[in-house]
Amino acid sequence: MIRFEHVTKRYPDGTTAVDDLSFEVARGELVTLVGPSGCGKTTTMKMVNRLVEPTGGRVLVDGQDVSTVDPVRLRRRIGYVIQQVGLFPHRTVLENTATVPHLLGVKRARARARAAELLDLVGLDPATYGDRYPEQLSGGQRQRVGVARALAADPPVLLMDEPFGAVDPVVRERLQSEFLKLQAEVRKTVLFVTHDLEEAVRLGDRIAVYGQGRIEQLDAPATVLGAPATPYVADFVGADRGLKRLSVTPVQEGDLEQPPVVHLDDPLPRELGARWAVVLDREDNLHGWISAEHAARAGGTVRDHARRMDAWLPLGADLKQAFATMLQHDAGWIAVIDRAQRGRFLGVLTPARLHEALRRSIDADAQDVPRAQVDVETVG
Ligand code: ADP
Ligand code: MG
Q: Which candidate, 159, 164, 187, 186, places its Cα nearest to that of 174?
């Protein structure tokens, strides 16, 4: 339905934004273009509706070379949704949505009825929102109007350039799932640009991972994540995967290190055997910590010199929380306690152990075994 044949775009200043690109989007398919900023995604998209003209190769829509079609007529057949929606500020939501059908000569009453239907379809009650002006809407609602407007002329092709990029993550997720439902109904041929891998994976029938002006891999989401075609793709999906995994990987007992431990009422030990020790109360609950330096100088009991321990987490907290706690308290380790056992101290998590836990969790998934069964090589 959309076909790129050896398409190149070199801007007058010498920048090669797109370099000999060939690929095809099938009818009713949604392909996401994902990649870092400046890699040529927007340029690719704009060559479909002739906002940008290629310097080499050609683009076909429905078998027709777009360079032979009048741009204005072409654009009426292609819905276009961008981040800064570009709604007309002095027209109501209903009027905005009816713009293109109106331009196409559809009678006013029919255009408005159709616009109302579309607003309903994107989750905006036309009775409530139809007469509002764009500035009276939230960012997420404006994006919905943008989608409704793009669909109003019932174009077979939709171009979407980071359409949900400007709204907060919660709203973005809702817009994504609504859009998926909508697409299941309307089955447009969609080219969808995003820099967010998660969004690309969620929405795309296939994902095109962009390097500098080129597609490094074009495959189903699972293939891109599971079998990256090049080191670049592996790097691109890997960095993100690791970060995302932090928040779904719980701290387990096996991840912890056992530091020296002293009790509150112990006399102050001469030697801790380490630079610091964890201080526990009579029930073995976490009380705080004590430094070796301090212990060497002072007399009295541990209680006299113990310091408060702010960097702690319950067992089962995720690695992202653990990492955040380390940063927040500028701590080289954090204590982990068992809430189920009235706060019993279990051990400490260090940056090295956190990294190990993350790698073990990735390997465990790859081998399909529990995390505790995975050995990883470590440095220390
Ligand atoms: P993306 O959408 O992936 O962030 P773009 O397609 O907007 O990337 O840009 C690709 C490259 O082309 C970038 O290096 C950008 O600076 C350059 N570029 C985009 N538009 C122009 C322009 N009108 N003139 C010159 N260079 C441009
Ligand atoms: Mg862009």
A: 164
Question: Taking CB atoms and a 6 Å cutoff, what residues make up the pocket around ligand 1?
Answer: 11, 13, 15, 17, 37-43
Note the pTM of the prediction, 2 decimals: 0.66
**Closest atom, ligand 1, to C-alpha of 9:** 12
Burial of 45 (0-12, 13-18, 19+ CB in 10 A): buried
pLDDT digits (tens, 9 = 90+) for 171-188: 788 788 888 888 888 899
Half-sphere exposure of 3 (CA within 13 A, CB side): 10
Instruction: Report which protein residue has its CA nearest ligand 1's atom 10.
Output: 40
Tokens representing 368 are 């399909």
Contacts of 128 (CB under 8 A, 6+ apart): none
Ligand 1 pocket, mutate which of 34, 37, 43, 215 (most atoms under 8 A from CB): 43
334-338, strands of its sheet edge to edge: 312-314, 334-338, 344-349
Mutation probe of ligand 1 site: the residue of 33, 39, 159 with most atoms within 8 A of C-beta: 39
- At 269-308, the pLDDT tens digits run 777 777 889 999 998 999 999 987 777 777 788 888 888 8
Q: What digits encode the pLDDT tens for the residues 188-228?
A: 999 999 988 888 988 999 999 999 999 999 998 878 877 88
Set out the domains of the chain in order of their start, with CATH numbers: 2-247 (3.40.50.300), 253-357 (3.10.580.10)
